[in-house]
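## tool: complex_structure
## caller: assistant
## args:
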Amino acid sequence: MSKPTPRRFRAIVIGVSTGGVQALQTLLSELPQDFPLPLLIVQHISPDADDGLVRLLGARCTLRVKEADEQDETLPGTVYLAPPNYHLLVESDGRLALSADAPVSYARPSIDVLFESAADAFGPALIGVVLTGANFDGSRGLARIKRQGGIAIVQDPADAEAPQMPQAALAATAVDQVLSLANIAGMLCTLAGEHATPTKETVVHA
Amino acid sequence: MGEDIANLEIRLLLEGVHQVYGYDFRDYAEASIRRRLTHWLAESGFETFSEAQSRLLRDRAVFESLLAGITVNVTEMFRDPAFFRIVREQVVPFLRTYPFVKIWHAGCATGEEAYSMAILLEEEGLGGRYRMYATDINEAVLQKAGEGVIPITEMQRFTRNYQKSGGKSSFADYYTARYDRAIVAPELRKNIVFAPHNLATDAEFGEMHMVLCRNVMIYFKAALKERCLKLFDTSLLPGGFLCLGLKETLENRKLGERYEELAPSSRIYRKRYV
Ligand SMILES: C[S@@+](CC[C@H](N)C(=O)[O-])C[C@H]1O[C@@H](n2cnc3c(N)ncnc32)[C@H](O)[C@@H]1O
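## result:
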């Protein structure tokens, strides 16, 4: 008997800013409860926001949604939202970490901080997604994900409530998929279902 | 591939730093320290950590710059106003019952947290009845802390924090603005002792009524966290208060059962008498 091959990916990271509450509701509500990967999300948020976003998203989708805590193990089918006023990072063992370091490009949590540390921790087993936003956060991080062999998905700027963040991401690196929001959940399901093939590199089909 | 080498280099570098300079960063959470070291490397002009290492181990000045880069000292006046409000409303009544109160700020950075507490205690009538020990690993920030300089560009936010925390007076009463900086009033400074202390290697401070260690242990791995918590526990009198950052908890910690959280999610834990 051969062992089941491990999944090709270990996690998905998502960065989103202006227009994010709506975009995340749409995207996450289309993912099934048994979605096989953890989703780590930075939504730019005011430093003194409460847990309103966690509750809202939790109510709108079947995935488990929680605010990220330090040393959290990342579990499949679970959404981890970066807490207000902290950066969210990934340790090399895949556990979560928080930091109170200075804001990066005015943002704390910062998308780049999450993406860069996740790229170092997960390498090619990571999918990075940049959605709507009116700044440049996430583009450096997405480039790092690509350098480490991961997959980059960007919301089509024409489809985004604020196009700047997707545009900056597209300018920063060779992105694998540019999709409208409505098609991103489907793509994530396809990729999440893939298994590692020992012989040949798995190709992403357009 | 290249990235795994960076991880290895960082481990070797921290080992070298520990052996040569006695500073132990080996049990810090990797992702944050890597981020900061990468930053430091880019500014230092060395190509790789291995290249930096040979100079670092021989040249104290290079080490000092690394130390400044590794320890992050971001802080603010009345950070998390809700926390200070609970201290004011629910901790101060206990503190009032003592003739004299001793407080330890572990990882005080540039001192804003200690000055915030001093303001609060003065307003609550505890003036002259408290002493604070504010410690940090980084002597450069302690120097700044002792001078009582706070960045004037942040004053609006600090004032807002102060008001939200239940401040009873006008925040402007507590500092004098001079050019680009604000200096904390001398009355607030005189009861605070700033001193170097390394949570990874140094011993406890005795007989404290309150220990604050906020947003410091989030940078530590589990074993170093446990070490710190043990230090704080030994330092605290029964009935004393341990205050952690908003995203830190005693849940699932050995110490947990001997402490009671004052209000849900307040991260203020009271040490039981038995
Ligand atoms: C983010 S600041 C927290 C400041 C303040 N407590 C607050 O919450 O605003 C973290 C501080 O911990 C200090 N620190 C880091 N490692 C330490 C150690 N081993 N011992 C003592 N202090 C340490 C850093 O130098 C820095 O000033």
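## assistant note: The radius of gyration of chain B is 20 Å. The mean pLDDT of chain B is 94. Handing back to user.
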